[in-house]
Amino acid sequence: MVENFPFVARARITEVQERRFLAMLDLCFERHPHYRRVFAKAGLRRGDFTSLADIVKLPLTSKRDLMADPEAFRLDTAGLATEMQVTWDVMHTTGTSAGRPTPFYSTSYDFYGLLTANRRALEIRGVRDGDLIANLCPMTLHPAGAYHRAVAAASAMKIPILSLIPGRPSPHFHWGSGLDESVAAIARARATILWGVASYVRRVVMRASELGADLSAVRLVFMMGEPVTEAMRDDVVGRLERLGAAAPRVSVSYAATEMQVGTVECHPGAGYHNPAPEQFHFEVVDPATHRPLPDGERGLIVLTHLDRTGTVLLRYALGDLSAIARTPCPHCGATTDRFVELPQRADDMLKIRGMLVNPALLLDTLAGDPDIREFQVVIDHEAPDDPLSMDRLVLRLAVAADVATLTARIAVRVRAAIGVRPEIEIVPASELYDEARAWKAQRVVDRRRNRD
After folding, report:
1. How far is 426 from 309, CA to CA, in rounded Å?
2. CA–CA separation, 408 and 168 (whole Å)
3. Backbone conformation region of residue 135, classed left if phi is above 0, alpha if psi is from -120 to 50, else beta
């Protein structure tokens, strides 16, 4: 029987975290290429770690560390149990310096644990027998966690899932769903749960409103990948109620590829619960000193894997800011840790349509094209007057080439570099820079921030 760690006594959680942290260190000192180098450089020995309190002796690992050499973060599992040697799957996160997404490896052992974590996340969110999930997570060229882990979660929960595979990741992919097809399938299947990137889920609900579709069976909406304001939550709930849904509820999650599961709400405003404290240890640290902050204080979120054998990360800075609580949840009684505010980005990465984008890769792609005279990247909402609409990536280009040929080429290159298809506007160079101040061209304009 699998122990239900989110709801056991806090002392039991601490006991298991301590034991698994030390076991994880045993493996890292012996088998982890990156951390063996870190330990040697810092003069750290295995005997320097006797409990989780000693975790502060480790320097933080950054996303750029992982991006620079993702293979060095794979544990050498030769001689371990077969489940720990088999690569089950490879998901992808932020792009590397070469423009390729960073691989994140899971062994069979890891995947079995992730099934537990994802099932628990559904249970915390209130999923029950008889539910049917409409999976609106996008199909991508490089496998990403959201689409695949939604399927895994439903499998572990033993409930049906309707995967609508929206997106156009490749000209060789022919089975994606448009908005109308997705709405029709959701209504036909009587889906009770909608799950996807926040702004896309809202777009589906808006289209359903325009079509007058019957979404009366929907009772839960899982939004992920983007910040969800209370206005967006209320907007989606109101639209669903007008479509016949009885007391629908929006549940927001905070997730990362490096987790392969989300921290989730049991109730709006209750915080984002860690569904597997025996697998993930979180700290909130001072962004400058990297020292742990007291519970309730806002700082940088740091993740440590406690029970993995594929890609393994210790004191990994996720790049977001939040505050943590370890007291029982007043709504569901869970004793697991939870983030008490929705995490917000702390570094220079951008989230566009739920995807974490390295802006340097985008700028390098544009700056390196000889036919582009000048350029500017604009990120806005599709409907400028609607801050809840989907993100829109626009490249404003001044060019010295055949427009049709160049725009097609640039669109393909940008999509390959960052995973997001841009819109392209050809404009006079004078619109993109002031010759008198050309030394300070504004390359990236994120208009979404002006609407917060």
Report:
1. 49
2. 15
3. beta
Q: What gap in Å lies between CA 155 and CA 115, rounded to an integer?
A: 8
Rounded to whole angstroms, the maximal C-alpha distance in the chain is 71
Location of structure tokens 């109101």: 238
- Residue 278, classed as helix, strand or coil, is coil
- Pull the structure tokens for residue 407: 């725009």
Tell me how far CA of residue 329 lies from CA of 277, 289, 295, in angstroms.
Answer: 15, 29, 14
Residue 325 pairs in a beta bridge with 338
Strand 372-381 relative to strand 355-357, pairing: unpaired
Q: Where are the beta strands (DSSP E) in 179-233?
A: 193-197, 220-224
Please state the rounded mean pLDDT for residues 57-78. Answer: 96
* Distance (Å, whole) CA 97 – CA 246: 48
> What is the separation of C-alpha 44 from the centre of its chain, rounded to a whole number of angstroms?
32
And the tokens for 292?
């742990």
In order of their start, the domains of the chain are 355-451 (3.30.300.30)
Q: Is the pTM of this model over 0.70?
A: yes
Express each pLDDT in 328-361 by its tens digit.
999 999 999 999 998 887 765 677 877 777 776 7
d(CA 312, CA 305): 6
| Nearest by Cα to 134 from 70, 77, 91, 190 | 190
